[in-house]
Amino acid sequence: MTLPEFGSGKQEWRKHLVSRRKAVPAEVREAEAQALARSAAALAWRAATVCAYVPVGSEPGSLALLDELRSAGRRVLLPVVTGAAPLDWGVYFGEDSLVPGPHGLREPSGLRLGPNAVANADAALVPALAVDQRGVRLGRGAGHYDRSLAGVSGVPLIAVVRDEELVDLLPGEPHDVRMTAALTPGGGLVTLSGM
Ligand SMILES: Nc1nc2c(c(=O)[nH]1)N(C=O)[C@@H](CNc1ccc(C(=O)N[C@@H](CCC(=O)O)C(=O)O)cc1)CN2
Ligand SMILES: Nc1ncnc2c1ncn2[C@@H]1O[C@H](COP(=O)(O)OP(=O)(O)OP(=O)(O)O)[C@@H](O)[C@H]1O
Fold first, then answer.
1. How confident is the model at residue 44 (pLDDT cuts 50, 70, 90)?
2. Non-local CB neighbours of 133 within 8 Å, separated by 6+ positions
3. Ligand that lies nearest to the alpha carbon of residue 66, given by its number in the listed order
4. Ligand 2 center to 146 CA (angstroms)
5. What's the whole-model pTM score?
6. Cα–Cα distance measured from residue 127 to residue 124, given in angstroms and rounded to the nearest whole number
7. pLDDT > 90? residue 34
8. Looking at ligand 1, which atom is closest to the CA of residue 18?
9. Contact 134/178 with Cβ under 8 angstroms?
10. Tell me, what's the pLDDT at 1?
11. Nearest ligand to residue 137 Cα
12. ipTM
């Protein structure tokens, strides 16, 4: 599958990236999820609190990644969708603590910490369809993360993508919050230029 042409819009990129993800064989997905879990656990962050997400469908990652973070002593926060507003956050206490949310998502069942929890986190693993070398991230197109991360500063923002989803250049808009790094199965943590 060739990449969308230079100048293609976000919708074209999304279509391409989603269909490419759907074509990834289950065993490759599983191997990539394991690699991501190992990398996440090995990150030498002094990150007491890490925002993360429960992968849905063909998204990279797994609950194993969240469990590795917990085993490494991190407090793991998960997003809660509250409409067209910044995401709320709750603590991950293991698979059994998750409840069904919209879009086939699983969400934390306990106390809501409020949208500001991400600004006080020590790092955030952010779901993405792709990210470019500048840190421009392409999400699902609802703006949940852009609204949630606008104004957040000093928190490493790490887009979790498959290796081929770290690309040279994505279409960016002024509201797109730049990622500081990408976490990929093959490359581990890759720092992005922010330029
Ligand atoms: N895992 C995860 N959690 C997240 C996000 C995300 O992108 N991924 N979000 C980011 O903003 C927010 C929720 N937004 C979402 C919006 C749409 C879909 C979605 O289109 N789901 C597909 C099924 C999944 C698939 O097969 O890939 C669907 O409903 O058809 C998922 C999450 C907060 N939590
Ligand atoms: N800071 C913001 N405040 C209000 N609306 C916003 C903000 N950022 C983005 N939006 C709105 O969200 C919509 C989707 O934006 P965009 O296409 O960049 O989403 P995305 O980054 O792919 O998705 P997401 O952030 O949910 O993962 C846009 O219509 C945009 O106007």
1. low
2. 166, 167, 168, 169, 192, 193
3. 1
4. 5
5. 0.94
6. 10
7. yes
8. 27
9. yes
10. 64
11. 2
12. 0.91
**How far is Cα 170 from Cα 7, in angstroms, rounded to an integer?**
9
**Nearest atom, ligand 2, residue 127 CA:** 27
Query: Confidence class of residue 27 from pLDDT cuts 50, 70 and 90?
Result: very high
Q: How far apart are CA 38 and CA 62, in angstroms?
A: 11
Report the mean per-residue pLDDT for the chain. Answer: 94
Torsion (CA) 89, 165, 39, 81 in degrees, nearest 10: 10
What residues does ligand 2 touch, defined as CB less than 6 Å away? 10, 138-147, 150, 173, 175-176
**CA-wise closest residue to 168 among 132, 138, 129:** 132
Task: Determine if ligand 1 sits within 6 Å of the CB of residue 127.
Answer: yes
pLDDT reading at 194 higher than 90: no
Q: Once rounded to an integer, what is the mean pLDDT over residues 94-102?
A: 96
Six-digit token string for 151? 């104004």
- Closest ligand 1 atom to the C-alpha of 142? 11
* Ligand 2 center–CA 124 separation, angstroms: 18
Ligand 2 centre distance from Cα of residue 76 (Å): 24
